[in-house]
Amino acid sequence: MIKFGTDGWRGVMAADFTFANVALVAGAVADFVLAHNLAGRGVVVGYDNRFLSDRFADTVAGVLTGRGVRVYLGRKALPTPVVAFAVHHLKAGGAVMLTASHNPPEYNGIKFIPEYAGPALPEITDEIEEYILRRQRSGTIPACGANGPARELTDPSRAYAEHVLKLIDTESIGKAEMRVVVDPLYGAGIGFLEEMLSGLGVRVDSLHNHRDPLFGGSLPDPSAAKLETLRDTVLREGAHLGLGLDGDADRLGVIDADGTYISPNQLLSLVYYHLVTSRGWSGPVARTVATTHLVDRIAADCGQEVVETPVGFKYIGQALMEHGCIVGGEESGGLSIRGHVPEKDGILAGMLAVEMVAVHGKSLKTLLEEVGDKYGRLYSERLDVHTGADRKPRIMENLRRLEPDSLAGQPVVGRFTVDGTKLVLENGAWVLIRASGTEPVFRIYTEAGSPAEVKRIQNAVRNLTGL
């Protein structure tokens, strides 16, 4: 069954991600576009550096044009945030992005980006899935017709870069005499950070800056474990920062000058702090239910609201559009700010990281210590617990009944079920337990004032739930 998860449909190539299934999804997207009278505005079709992504994109374009939908096809591999920007820039009716983001090389995927240039909300993907089911039941095979409107090749890279630079303090970066190492991990983000930073006078070194569909035998995931080469290069070259992108450049990993990995939770907190203290911005912050509460403390100090959403950047994008949030982010690395498209963007996040070092004249680690001195230090960790499929129903029932008065020696002062079960403790610590929607895995997100307390909370939750 073809299902759109937290961020699109993904599958193993030649197993379930086949040309036939890609054409089926493209036909359903065409059904959606036509039903909402968006065909005349056109659909952007983008693709990343994965094996056959360009061929899959060509199939999507053929199906769309065969249904009379105008298509803007990327001239080259493009990052997801650039394709989202193209929707806004071209005033298109939406976009189809061929990518599996940070998944292993054997995967590929499809994201649908609606006309508002952010991730598709559930009501949109539900409608597309319904069109897929109708086509499967009727046996309707989408045609890749040559008689429809001619596809138009497009490359929004320059317009995107000009837009991002307007969101950044380029003057401060230009004066800072910085050195930055960029690692796009063989992905679609190759060249973007390098060219923007070099144009501002930053000395830039680049790693893994050519297409490799096997991603060097690893994953295009900018986690601490996958950025060891970047870390070593930053230390060897004496760089101020190392910036790593995932396969479609919508997420960022940061290595500080001393080799410290700056987590997405920490980066989001720093960006929010920077926007309100250095830029003088005022407004709420959006975070998912699984993301750090350090931003809550900063917001409270500034008299601003926190918008808590379910997991998934589509909900963060919605908050950016509907609540006027100045920044929104998630613990998995997605981030965007006011004035940008409501899509997570690792390139923009990287430019903001460079701006913070340039403006404050200190490392991100030092800046984070100052934030900790002011608001308290929080330690976050995600623990994935694999369970047999037969155990999942019982654990889910235990979660529904999970209403303890105390946990790990602290009174429970809040219980929330926006997405999973979240318990907030009197001292500000919290834990969230969510079930994966695609595999027998439960994720335990925990944040507390010390690593030891994080472990105590994790152990207490596992005992109570049977995990």
TrEMBL record:
Q: In which pathway does it act?
A: Lipid metabolism; Glycolipid metabolism; diglucosyl-diacylglycerol biosynthesis
Which Pfam families has this protein been placed in?
PGM_PMM_I, PGM_PMM_II, PGM_PMM_III, PGM_PMM_IV
Question: A single Gene Ontology molecular function, please?
Answer: phosphoglucomutase activity
Q: Where is the Alpha-D-phosphohexomutase C-terminal domain?
A: 410-463
Q: What's the EC number here? A: 5.4.2.2
Domain Alpha-D-phosphohexomutase alpha/beta/alpha residues, every copy:
2-134, 159-259, 264-374
Tell me the first and last residues of the signal peptide. none
| Enzyme's top EC category | isomerase
Enumerate the catalysed reactions.
Answer: alpha-D-glucose 1-phosphate = alpha-D-glucose 6-phosphate
Q: Which residues cross the membrane?
A: none
Key words of the record: Isomerase, Magnesium, Metal-binding, Phosphoprotein
The domain of life is Bacteria
What is a biological process (GO) this protein takes part in? carbohydrate metabolic process
Q: Give the family, as the similarity comment puts it.
A: Belongs to the phosphohexose mutase family.
Q: What is this protein called?
A: Phosphoglucomutase
